[in-house]
Amino acid sequence: MRAPSPKTAPDEALQRAVTQLLAPLARLAVARGLKFPEIKELLKQAFVHAALESDAAPSAPNVSRVATATGLTRREVTRLSLQQPPARANRSSPATQLFTRWQADRKLRDRRGRPRVLPRQGPAPSFEALARAITRDVHPRRLLDELVRLELVAHDPASDTVRLLEQAFVPRGDMTRMLGFVGDNVGDHLAASVGNVLGDKRKHFEQAVFADELSEASVDAAKKLINAQWRALMAALVPELEDLRLADRRAAGHGGAPPPRHRLRVGLYSFDEAARSGEGGEQ
Predict the structure, then answer these.
(1) How far apart (Å, rounded) are the C-alpha atoms in residues 234 and 270?
(2) Nearest to 113, CA basis, from 222, 235, 268, 242
(3) Can you give the residue range of the structural domain that contains 157?
(4) Would you say 81 and 63 are in contact if contact means Cβ atoms under 8 Å apart?
(5) What is the Cβ-side half-sphere exposure of residue 167, based on CA atoms within 13 angstroms?
(6) Are 78 and 35 within one domain?
(7) Would 279 disulfide with which of 135, 140, 176, 275, CB 3.0-4.6 Å?
(8) How many CB atoms lie within 10 A of CB 62?
């Protein structure tokens, strides 16, 4: 019997990285009742589709090659290759777009830089005008009801005005939407990291800073700074991205070319926890 090959440093680093990625996924699955056999099937699908994407002739996949690359049987590869991967939405919802525009648009902020309280109806600046600028497919009242349901805005019937309640789009009580954010935000972040490691042609910006040996009070102070920096970044990015999007749309319309299809996601995250026993201190 042949002895297993000794693991190289990159192999061990890869296993450590995968372990770190799987731990929070396992925590989420256990908390939401997703069983291991279901995760196993999803993982098999992901392996097969990843191997198929790297195949030089995806229209006629080499089952043996995919089986060898994934460690699955030919029968499993054949079965899974017939299944289509779940389609991902390339556009955010109108509610998300409206919330983000309201937060970032300079015309919708007061002298102190805070989002204005808007009249529900009437010419801009109003909630109705903002909603119609985002989409003509959803009635402004429906968008308002959705944002109120998510506890992101409040409507005052007495003055017929609408005000933001949150600084970030975190829909309370909507587990479907929150899980969608997990897949979209963390999925794109992970795709950027993996693409950089594998040397994809497109280089993605993916950086982070780290600090330890902090008190809880210091972490709270840092979070206030993080929130302020995110608001500043969003206020600078959203108008510029909207101008770029409109310019691209006009250019495609004048030249008769198909509309641009690239998408961009920019995020900022923070995470903190108490150090486990044996962690921290000098290295």
Answers:
(1) 16
(2) 235
(3) 94-164
(4) yes
(5) 12
(6) yes
(7) 275
(8) 15
Residue 140 has pLDDT above 60, yes or no: yes
Backbone angles phi, psi at 118, to 5 degrees: -110, 140
Q: DSSP letter at 96? A: H
Residue 230 counted as domain residue: no
Domain assignment present for residue 66? The answer is yes
- For residue 258, the cross-strand partners are none
pLDDT of 281: 44
Estimate the crossing angle of helix 74-81 against helix 63-70, to 10 degrees: 110
Is 15 domain-assigned? Answer: yes
Same domain? 83 vs 98: no
Residue 60 has pLDDT above 90, yes or no: no
Contact of 131 with 143, CB cutoff 8 Å: yes
User: What is the pTM (predicted TM-score) of this model?
Assistant: 0.76
Among the residue ranges 25-39, 64-78, 160-174, the one predicted with the least confidence is 160-174
Tokens of 236: 């600078």
The residues that bridge with 153 in the sheet, in sequence order, are 164
Domain termination residue (choose one: 56, 87, 118):
87
Where do the H-state alpha helices sit in the chain? 9-32, 36-53, 63-70, 74-81, 94-104, 127-134, 140-149, 175-181, 187-198, 216-255
Q: How confident is the model at residue 250 (pLDDT cuts 50, 70, 90)?
A: confident
Residue 279: pLDDT band by 50, 70, 90 thresholds?
low
Number of domains the chain contains: 2
Neighbours of 104 (CB within 10 A): 21
Task: Out of 60, 87, 114, pick the residue that ends a domain.
Answer: 87
* CA–CA distances in Å: residue 265 to residues 94, 149, 184, 185: 16, 26, 9, 8
